């Protein structure tokens, strides 16, 4: 078996994204970071809460992503919440721009991870959920959890000798 990437788990994740949005499509974008930012991100010091992406002049930017300053970095610690450029193909940016022009659609950052030594951001195209949609999703999840619990209990009862 080949060497697995040591960063299979996300370095930062937006857990509220699936709660607040219906994610319809996802894209992988590169991020332009400084040396101390990537070191801090690898230490798990990134936060995607209240983060959003915008498109300006044919380029995509990530706003409000907090990357804590790297403690061992003696120089160049930029603003922790500065706007960071995202690297996407021009065709993808134009497609995202067209989708977000539609009412109710937005670009939602989902998670940050390392792939082949580069920091990547998974962004999704999401449509905002209404309050009743959130309740429906929660009720569906609760019913699935109850069904799984009942099935586990039945398996425990039906297995003799355990």
UniProtKB/TrEMBL annotation:
<dbReference type="InterPro" id="IPR000037">
    <property type="entry name" value="SsrA-bd_prot"/>
</dbReference>
<dbReference type="InterPro" id="IPR023620">
    <property type="entry name" value="SmpB"/>
</dbReference>
<feature type="compositionally biased region" description="Basic and acidic residues">
    <location>
        <begin position="132"/>
        <end position="156"/>
    </location>
</feature>
<dbReference type="GO" id="GO:0070930">
    <property type="term" value="P:trans-translation-dependent protein tagging"/>
</dbReference>
<comment type="similarity">
    <text>Belongs to the SmpB family.</text>
</comment>
<comment type="function">
    <text>Required for rescue of stalled ribosomes mediated by trans-translation. Binds to transfer-messenger RNA (tmRNA), required for stable association of tmRNA with ribosomes. tmRNA and SmpB together mimic tRNA shape, replacing the anticodon stem-loop with SmpB. tmRNA is encoded by the ssrA gene; the 2 termini fold to resemble tRNA(Ala) and it encodes a 'tag peptide', a short internal open reading frame. During trans-translation Ala-aminoacylated tmRNA acts like a tRNA, entering the A-site of stalled ribosomes, displacing the stalled mRNA.</text>
</comment>
<feature type="region of interest" description="Disordered">
    <location>
        <begin position="132"/>
        <end position="162"/>
    </location>
</feature>
<dbReference type="InterPro" id="IPR020081">
    <property type="entry name" value="SsrA-bd_prot_CS"/>
</dbReference>
<dbReference type="GO" id="GO:0005829">
    <property type="term" value="C:cytosol"/>
</dbReference>
<dbReference type="GO" id="GO:0070929">
    <property type="term" value="P:trans-translation"/>
</dbReference>
<dbReference type="Pfam" id="PF01668">
    <property type="entry name" value="SmpB"/>
</dbReference>
<dbReference type="GO" id="GO:0003723">
    <property type="term" value="F:RNA binding"/>
</dbReference>
<keyword id="KW-0963">Cytoplasm</keyword>
<protein>
    <recommendedName>
        <fullName>SsrA-binding protein</fullName>
    </recommendedName>
</protein>
<keyword id="KW-0694">RNA-binding</keyword>
């Amino acid at each position: 078996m080949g060497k697995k990437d040591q960063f299979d788990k996300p370095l930062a994740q937006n857990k509220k994204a699936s709660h607040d949005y219906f994610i319809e499509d996802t894209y992988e974008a590169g991020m332009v970071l400084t040396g101390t930012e990537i070191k801090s991100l690898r230490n798990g010091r990134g936060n995607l809460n209240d983060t959003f992406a915008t498109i300006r002049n044919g380029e995509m930017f990530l706003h409000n992503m907090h990357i804590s300053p790297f403690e061992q970095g003696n120089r160049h610690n930029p603003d922790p919440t500065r706007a960071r450029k995202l690297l996407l193909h021009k065709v993808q940016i134009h497609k995202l721009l067209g989708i977000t022009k539609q009412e109710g659609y937005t670009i939602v950052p989902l998670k940050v991870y390392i792939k082949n030594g580069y920091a990547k951001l998974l962004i999704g195209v999401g449509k905002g959920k209404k309050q009743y949609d959130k309740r429906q999703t929660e009720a569906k999840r609760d019913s699935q959890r109850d069904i799984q619990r009942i099935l586990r209990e039945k398996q425990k009862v039906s297995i003799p000798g355990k």
